[in-house]
Design goal:
By secondary structure, the chain is α/β, with parallel strands linked by helices. The chain folds into 2 domains: 309 residues, ABC transporter type 1, transmembrane domain (ABC transporter transmembrane region fold), CATH 1.20.1560; 245 residues, 3-Layer(aba) Sandwich (Rossmann fold). It is built from 20 helices and 12 strands. The strands form 3 sheets. It has a 6-stranded mixed β-sheet. It is elongated and about 115 Å long.
Length: 583
């Protein structure tokens, strides 16, 4: 947690000002019992109404000053808490953007969402309360004890005996609570995971009538969370009753000894009232301190969880001597992309996903990739923009090892349209400009034409400025796919990868798309599909099975030489003549 304090730069002065003004408020509060004592011992005892009025006005003045100090402290603490947490949240979001698919797969999306939201809110609350109360409450406790000594040193010994006992109770409960709050947050992760899974897969759950099973699983997770919260809540809740009990015992002792000393003429009645007020101040502050400790304990546990994400080092980064990706650097006759005995093993997997892949892709080629589910098609193409790093062999792109390139330039030169069509809330224009922020309207319409999306965008009253809902939910599946393809066309990337991104298109639309891909000048196209009919016009087709390359050739060649491809083609209903024409 302390490592996160580096984000406090720029807020340190305000972070000092907030507790400082709280201390000024505390000083005003500590002086009030002395004024009350003087009113009793001098004003009331002597019947001096003028003295009483002057002292009451002085108390009002202290109250107004204390209020001003409190409001100022609250302002500074809120500014620091919100600003500091905002910095940490932005830094965490930026760090997550640097993590490779491997780290994100390992951590889990649900955990990351919880740490960006719930954990950050707990940190913000903890910082706010810490700046307001962490110094004020101990200062009141210690200050009240010191002021008690100025009233009567012997009676003040009750304060001296009370404070160590309270400190032991508070710190013991805090040490027990911190690890328990961490477990509670981990159980909250599991609840969020179940909730996210149910919301994302609600149609599947209903289709297979699995609502009861999911309700049972969700109930078990929430019961575990509830049990953890009850346990830590029960332990934390001991602070208030124990504090009240100890302080009230001390008050009884104080009143008893004070009464004896008043009777003996050693103390005045006002002095006893002042001592009682100081003890009451300690009680109130300890209740605040107890609540502060509960919140700070949660904040520390959440801060440690956030820091653990910062400590994850991205496995895919640009090297220190990175070079820019330059597709034009490839000499005539040399491959644009070259795999040599490439293997890929996902972290934690028992075996390789890809094994001994050797192939070349030349500039301007239109290459298809096909294979059964789980054969490694997506894994293969995700190696090119370095979403994952190879675990064996050699992968050369644009004449150099792929690991030598600056990631930004590499991914600008290689655009990939993933399997799942993802659009962002905004407009059609704002989504297309992700491909190239400087693109003109003519370029956007050209990209839409190539992706066979121009017709339905023109039919919208707003055209390019038509709204896009979150996830593109106001468009059909096929329309979303065509818009994501158009977004890739907007870029000037030399390598374009379509990872089964035409699966929701009808045959006629997909055929138009393939013709547009064929006509794309200066681009190397890699088209991944599970339908053999979508790849018949490719220059070459790569066939994968169980992570191995089992076929590499034209549609006609593979029908004669690759049983796996022939089986896929027959299953797809593709009948092929000897000349290779699809029917």
């Amino acid at each position: 947690m302390r490592k996160l304090l580096r984000y406090m730069d720029g807020y340190r002065l305000r972070a000092v000002a907030a507790p400082l003004f709280k201390l000024f408020e505390a000083i005003m509060e500590l002086l009030v019992p002395l004024i009350v004592a003087s009113i009793i011992d001098i004003g009331i005892a002597g019947g001096d109404r003028g003295y009483i009025v002057r002292r009451v006005l002085l108390m009002v003045l202290f109250g107004v000053a204390g209020l001003a100090f409190a409001v100022t402290a609250q302002y500074f603490s809120a500014k620091v808490a919100v600003g500091y947490t905002g910095r940490v949240r932005r830094a965490l979001f930026e760090h997550l953007g640097k993590l490779s698919y491997t780290e994100i797969d390992t951590i889990g999306t649900d955990t990351l969402i919880t740490r960006l939201t719930g954990d950050m809110n707990q940190i913000q609350s903890g910082v706010n309360l810490t700046l307001r109360l962490l110094l004020r409450s101990p200062f009141i406790v210690v200050g009240a004890t010191i002021m008690a000594f100025t009233v009567d040193p012997k009676a003040a010994l009750v304060f001296v005996g009370l404070i160590p006992v309270l400190a032991i109770v508070i710190f013991a409960i805090m040490l027990v609570s911190i690890p328990l709050y961490k477990r509670v947050q981990e159980r909250l992760d599991r609840v969020v995971s179940a909730l996210r899974r149910n919301l994302a897969g609600v149609r599947v759950l209903r289709a297979f009538n699995k609502e009861a099973d999911e309700r049972k699983d969700f109930a078990e997770r929430t019961d575990a969370l509830e049990h953890g919260q009850r346990t830590v809540g029960a332990i934390s809740s001991l602070l208030n009753p124990l504090t009240y009990c100890l302080v009230n015992i001390a008050i009884l002792v104080l009143v008893y000894t004070g009464a004896l000393r008043v009777e003996a003429g050693i103390l005045t009645q006002g002095a006893v009232i002042a001592l009682y007020n100081y003890m009451s101040q300690i009680l109130v502050e300890l209740v605040k301190l107890a609540n502060l400790i509960i919140n700070v304990t949660r904040a520390i546990a959440c801060g440690n969880r956030v820091q653990s994400v910062f400590e994850i080092t991205p496995s895919v980064v640009s090297p220190e001597d990175a070079i820019p990706a330059d597709p034009d650097a490839v000499k005539d006759g040399e491959p644009l992309i070259s795999f040599r005995d490439v293997s890929l093993c996902y972290r934690g997997a028992a075996s390789d996903m890809l094994q001994n892949i050797t192939l070349d892709i030349f500039p301007g080629e239109y290459v298809g990739v096909i294979g059964g589910t789980g054969s490694g098609k997506t894994s293969l193409v995700q190696l090119l923009p370095r979403f994952y790093d190879i675990t064996g062999g050699s992968l050369t792109v644009f004449g150099h090892e792929v690991g030598r390139y600056d990631l930004d330039s590499l991914r600008r030169a290689i655009r990939i349209v993933p399997q799942k069509a993802v659009l962002f809330s905004g407009t059609v224009r704002s989504n297309l400009l992700w491909g190239n922020p400087d693109a003109t309207d003519d370029q956007l319409w050209r990209a839409l034409e190539l992706a066979c999306a121009a017709d339905f965008i023109r039919a919208l009253p707003e055209g390019l400025d038509a709204p896009v809902s979150k996830g593109g939910s106001n468009f059909s599946g096929g329309q979303r796919q065509r818009l994501t393809i158009a977004r890739a066309f907007v870029s000037d990337a030399r390598v374009l990868i379509l990872d089964d991104s035409g699966s929701a298109l009808d045959y006629a639309t997909e055929q138009k798309l393939r013709q547009a891909l064929r006509a794309a000048e200066g681009k190397t196209i890699i088209y991944v599909s599970q339908r053999a009919g979508a790849l018949t016009s490719c220059d070459r087709i790569l066939v994968l099975e169980d992570g191995e390359l089992v076929g590499n050739g034209t549609h006609t060649e593979l029908l004669d030489t690759c049983p796996v491809y022939r089986e896929i083609a027959e299953a797809s209903g593709v009948a092929v003549s000897k000349e290779g024409g699809a029917r």
